[in-house]
Amino acid sequence: MPSLDPFFLQDLVAAAFLFFITRYFIRSLLRTTSRTLPPGPKGWPIVGALPLLGSMPHVTLAKLAKQYGPVMYLKMGTCNMVVASTPDAARAFLKTLDLNFSNRPPNAGATHLAYNSQDMVFAEYGSRWKLLRKLSNLHMLGGKALENWSQIRAVELGHMIRAMHESSQKGVAVVVPEMLTYAMANMIGQVILSRRVFVTKGSESNEFKDMVVELMTSAGIFNIGDFIPSIAWMDLQGIEGEMKKLHKRWDVLLTKMMEEHAKTAHERRGKPDFLDIIMANRDNSDGEKLSLVNVKALLLNLFTAGTDTSSSVIEWALAEMMKNPKILKKAHEEMDKVVGRSRRLEESDIPKLPYLQAICKETFRKHPSTPLNLPRVSTQACQINGYYIPKNTRLSVNIWAIGRDADVWDNPLDFNPERFLSGKNAKIDPRGNDFELIPFGAGRRICAGTRMGIVLVEYILGTLVHSFDWMVPPGTGELNMEEAFGLALQKAVPLSACLSPRLAPTAYVS
User: Fold this and answer.
1) Which of 85, 324, 373, 499 could share a disulfide with 397, CB 3.0–4.6 Å?
2) Model confidence over 103-128: pLDDT tens digits?
3) For residues 348 and 328, what is the distance between their CA atoms, to the nearest angstrom?
4) Are the C-beta atoms of 392 and 368 separated by less than 8 Å?
5) Within a 13 Å sphere around the CA of 16, how many CA atoms are in the beta-carbon half?
6) Is the dihedral of CA 234, 239, 241, 243 positive or negative?
7) Which residues pair with 228 in a beta bridge?
8) What is the 3-state secondary structure (H, E, C) of 286-351?
9) Strand ranges in 373-424 using DSSP code E only, listed in sequence order
10) Rounded CA gap, 288 and 120, in Å?
């Protein structure tokens, strides 16, 4: 066998080496090009961008987005997070890539408050979540179900209007969020349990309000343990310990409600309420079975999200109108023309009140009840706007920033309902299809109570505005419009108001 030329061997080795090196660099270059992460702040070692967020994360993230762009990447501890801050970016994630971002990341709130994700809000996207959602829509949150309990809304709102009228006759200022939570909890209680949750306003209802606010606040905090799981056991911020204590209080309340409900089953024969229907349909055709814990966790969702989110929007709307008396006057003029002053406003009046609807939309825009959507997480790696999004990346849509985007809204810091009455914004709707206004989110994981939230805000706000003149209590000075961050965006200082009745006396007793 002839020997190989040593120079040929040398050239062969050199060529092979050059081939592999070249291929390696080309692949690396292609990988780098195709896997470019979105821009974002570098953050700190180990903890990443967590220390940058401060006490008002939605505001901080909005400012950072102006620097880094509409799709922004942050390293949060050992986790990846991407933030969408414009309508187009939100549409890309919540519509184009909706299925890939249909799950929730694990977090302390889901574990310690929501019965280890056994509820509807934090449940894994799958058959159990679909069953919870289907039953809730059919029997409480959907269009037909909402029509069925419209009379309950009217009766409970009547109780609140009478209580407010009595306060106005005594010259006593009302604390708006307390009144709203009391009324709305009773509305939901009537639908779910066939009874008012609170018979009289007092310490029990105030404790309920405090528990709702505490849950929404603690669940909205960026918990270090969620982003650095290896040190979660240390509970550095003390959040998880407080969540566990709060969960016990909620569990006692919900267990008591369910036990009392079971004892009165004979009284509801032929007239089942929501809990009766849920208990009777705990199995579905796919073999999914709801446990008692699932039912309890669902009730927790409905009582907390159903009261706090809508009440915060109504409170902000009233505060904005008290700061802008011309808007309040224009709303009164529209209502006096359509409804008159001899009776209370009814839900059937709302389609004839475009200015009221515009006020609601403007409040959803400027003061969305959920400033940052509940987090989602990518099931698979994906691409967006030319950027690479790794698998298991958390998604946060800054709904608050979208509502204040100067490229979308003229003078976004102004409260101006007229923007929704004509021109390009006239047909914008808050139900999740117009990404300029998504107070309830969008896509598969849009808030299940979207329809109910809109109905409650329009009807309750309209009734309060129609029934009373709203004034700042004497000696209060300028209204405080500061925010308190949480899952729901609260007013830092609860709204108090002095009321002056506008309707015929008979309208407050019916």
Assistant:
1) 373
2) 999 999 999 999 999 999 999 999 99
3) 21
4) no
5) 6
6) negative
7) none
8) CCCECCHHHHHHHHHHHHHHHHHHHHHHHHHHHHHHHHCHHHHHHHHHHHHHHCCCCCCCCHHHHH
9) 376-377, 382-384, 387-389, 394-397
10) 14
Q: State both tokens at 209.
A: 């309000």
- Residue 406 has, within 13 A of its CA and on its CB side, a CA count of 6
CA angle 140, 144, 149 (to 5 degrees): 55
Residue 311 structure tokens: 């009440």
Quote the Cα angle for 330-450-369, to 5°. Answer: 65
Class of 34-508 in CATH: mainly alpha
Mean pLDDT of 4-30: 44
> Where does the pLDDT of residue 510 fall: very low under 50, low under 70, confident under 90, or very high at 90 and above?
low
Task: Specify which residues 398 forms β-bridges with.
Answer: 372
Residue 34 to residues 21, 26, 30, 256, 418: CA-CA distances in angstroms? 20, 12, 6, 56, 45
Distance in angstroms (rounded) separating the CA atoms of residues 89 and 71: 6
Q: List all residues 6 or more positions away from 98 whose beta carbon is below 8 Å from its beta carbon.
A: 442, 443, 444
Question: Does 16 score more than 60 pLDDT?
Answer: no
Q: How many other CB atoms sit within 10 Å of the CB of residue 87? A: 18
Tokens of 99: 């299925």
Side chain identity at residue 54, one-letter code: G
CB 395 within 8 A of CB 375: yes
pLDDT value, residue 34: 54
Answer whether 176's CB lies under 8 Å from 209's CB: no
Query: Residue 283 carries which DSSP code?
Result: B
Q: What angle do CA 93, 98, 99 make, to 5 degrees?
A: 140
Residues 6 or more apart in contact with residue 44 via CB below 8 angstroms: 50, 51
Every domain of the chain and the residues it spans: 34-508
> What number of other Cβ atoms are within 10 A of residue 340's Cβ?
13
The DSSP secondary-structure symbol of 421 reads: T
Cβ contact 366:415 at 8 Å? yes
Q: Write out the H or E segment, with its range, that includes residue 276.
A: helix 274-280
Q: How would residue 477 be classed by pLDDT, with cut points 50, 70 and 90? A: confident
| Contact (CB, 8 A) for 104 and 379 | no
Determine the Cα–Cα distance for residues 437 and 414; give it in Å rounded to an integer: 16
What letter represents residue 498's amino acid?
Answer: C
Token pair recorded at residue 339: 């409804």
Collapsed DSSP state (helix, strand, coil) of residue 72? strand
